[in-house]
């Protein structure tokens, strides 16, 4: 039996290999999503950073370039969430990944529209709420993940088995995964699929600025840290902007002070416009293991080979 | 080929199964170390919390009760480190696990005395220094671990592959491991063995106070947090004492203020004497997955069975 027929994530999402290219702010538009979908995994457009017109353009371009399943990731903490969902539905998207909000808000509605719904969770408690709300699968995302993150600070290693115990629906693992070997580890912990974000930032098709991609390749020099815990916790590459955040936090600065420093458009400035000094660079810890900028098709092929090799190597342990 | 003959950690430590019962403050004396050793894994006496006379008594009792290999864990940040090492050597200990200091300090000396030396690392850089210093194997310990922790905050999932790449000597994984399934995950990431601490706190033979053991079994209600980052970062169960630490840190309190709150004997008060309100309870995130207080022999048997089952399950993925 191949994965495509035996694996619940492959069956649910109609993909060949149980891997999701994460929808991310500023870096995952139609180019990356199409490349991912055409490689046999789930391609995802990240709606978080897009106004409605831009989201419409990305979805239309993506749908024109692949007949494979495509999803839209909608963080529920921005304005226009409902309009984004309505727009994606109208254009023909039938797989939604929701995050940063309650799974109760849109799941019933989306299920009635015939959609598949995945929700991102940072705790077993939230995973159970997702299952109760009718979500089809949960993405358990650990402390090591880039961008917005849970307050529990549970790492993937500790989170995945707890989520696996809490629900019957399929569990995908996210946060800290960039290779096929790490996918094998996720499966050992009870996951049936994996979502990778950081790894796909460093691809030819990602719309991350070349400066940001270059910084990701050097990430082991800088490190990443979870910060802004008085606002919404977010993991950033430790660039000069992060150092300013850190200085405020070290002296116990307030949420207001952090909000003022953050201002508007920091993530766009860093991730899309490439401002190393002043931009906010959302990236996962696993950037330290990312050393190249492959085409997505080549990357997915490599991950599949690594996954097979890792499962084979485990087999030889007696 | 069985693990005991094919695995480098088994060969190095002369054990049946590549698992180490971590040496910990206040909870891992002769009873736990002997039970672990007699179960076919490495039993370790944690010297960190012991005065010389107490350490001598524990080592003597342990050696009288098993002919299997025993190790002593010596954190290099306390007084009497050198006397502890000399004492253990004189009594016949030949496996040392050092941590919280430079691998250069004692490795050459211990190797000349015919000892095996393992050092605990929280970064690939330190792992390389260990190898250069002549250390026999490194224990890569992630952010999720209990007690003292690295400043890098690298989780096990992200740390292990980096350490694996950095050195040729065997890598053991620590931080977040409590089951045979998690051991299989560690092996997928490149580890050749695992060290578990938190899991062994909750055994019949650990000398943790019954109140502390009970709190570990309820840990998913409380959670754990890495704190005291202005002193030496330490992961604590979120009890009332932790809340006091957190309050100081939230308002940017100084290292001096934290030192004053900490005072003396907090860990003993919590872990050995069972003071829930005022004690410092060092424990790993994985406590959330610990739900029983087995005898060590039964626990090790279970972990071996789980490990085999997890490897078997991975094998069946195609």
Could you give the order of the helices and strands of chain A? Answer: HHEHEHEHEHEHEEHEHEHHHEEHHHH
The CATH superfamily of the largest domain in chain A is Aldolase class I
Binned strand content of chain A: 5-15%
According to DSSP, the number of beta strands of chain A is 11
| CATH class value of the largest domain in chain A | Alpha Beta
What is the rounded Rg of chain A?
18 Å
| Distance between the ends of chain A | 24 Å
The tally of helices of chain A reads 16
What does this structure look like?
2 copies of one chain form a homodimer. Chain A is globular. Chain A is α/β, with parallel strands linked by helices and 318 residues long. Chain A has helices at residues 3-6, 8-13, 30-38, 52-65, 81-91, 107-112, 124-133, 156-166, 180-188, 198-201, 210-217, 219-222, 240-250, 255-262, 266-272, 296-315; strands at residues 19-21, 43-46, 70-75, 95-99, 116-121, 137-141, 147-148, 171-174, 193-196, 224-227, 234-237. Chains A and B meet through helix 8, helix 9 and helix 16 of A and helix 8, helix 9 and helix 16 of B.
Supply database-style keywords.
homodimer; 318 residues; alpha/beta; TIM Barrel; 8-stranded parallel sheet; 16 helices; 11 strands; globular
Helices and strands in order:
The structure is a homodimer of 318-residue chains.
Chain A: H1 3-6, H2 8-13, E1 19-21, H3 30-38, E2 43-46, H4 52-65, E3 70-75, H5 81-91, E4 95-99, H6 107-112, E5 116-121, H7 124-133, E6 137-141, E7 147-148, H8 156-166, E8 171-174, H9 180-188, E9 193-196, H10 198-201, H11 210-217, H12 219-222, E10 224-227, E11 234-237, H13 240-250, H14 255-262, H15 266-272, H16 296-315
Parallel strand pairs in A: 1-9, 2-3, 3-4, 4-5, 5-6, 6-8, 8-9
Antiparallel strand pairs in A: 7-11, 10-11
């Amino acid at each position: 039996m191949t994965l495509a027929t035996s694996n619940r994530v492959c069956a649910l999402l109609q993909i060949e290999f149980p891997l999701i290219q994460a929808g991310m702010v500023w870096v995952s538009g139609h180019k990356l999503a199409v490349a991912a979908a055409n490689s046999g995994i789930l391609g995802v457009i990240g709606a978080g950073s897009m106004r409605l017109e831009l989201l419409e353009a990305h979805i239309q371009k993506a749908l024109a370039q692949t007949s494979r399943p495509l999803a839209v990731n909608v963080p529920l903490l921005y304005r226009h969430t409902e309009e984004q969902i309505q727009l994606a539905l109208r254009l023909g998207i039938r797989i939604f990944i929701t995050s940063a909000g309650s799974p109760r808000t849109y799941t019933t509605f989306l299920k009635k529209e015939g959609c598949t719904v995945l929700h991102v969770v940072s705790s077993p408690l939230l995973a159970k709420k997702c299952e109760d709300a009718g979500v089809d699968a949960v993405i358990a995302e650990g402390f090591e993940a880039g961008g917005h993150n849970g307050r529990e600070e549970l790492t993937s290693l500790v989170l995945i088995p707890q989520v696996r115990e809490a629900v019957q629906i399929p569990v995908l693992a996210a946060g800290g995964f960039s290779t096929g070997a790490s996918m094998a580890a996720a499966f050992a912990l009870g996951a049936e699929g994996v979502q990778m974000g950081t790894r796909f930032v460093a691809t030819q098709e990602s719309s991350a600025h070349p400066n940001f991609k270059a910084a990701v390749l050097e990430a082991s020099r800088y490190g990443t840290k979870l910060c802004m815990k008085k606002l919404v916790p977010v993991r950033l590459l430790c660039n000069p902007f992060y150092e300013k955040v850190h200085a405020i936090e070290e002296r116990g600065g307030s949420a207001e002070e952090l909000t003022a420093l953050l201002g508007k458009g920091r993530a766009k400035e860093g991730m899309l416009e490439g401002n190393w000094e002043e931009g906010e660079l959302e990236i996962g810890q696993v950037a330290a293991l990312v050393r190249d900028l492959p085409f997505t098709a080549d990357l997915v092929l490599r991950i599949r080979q690594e996954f097979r090799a890792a499962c084979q190597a485990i087999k030889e342990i007696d």
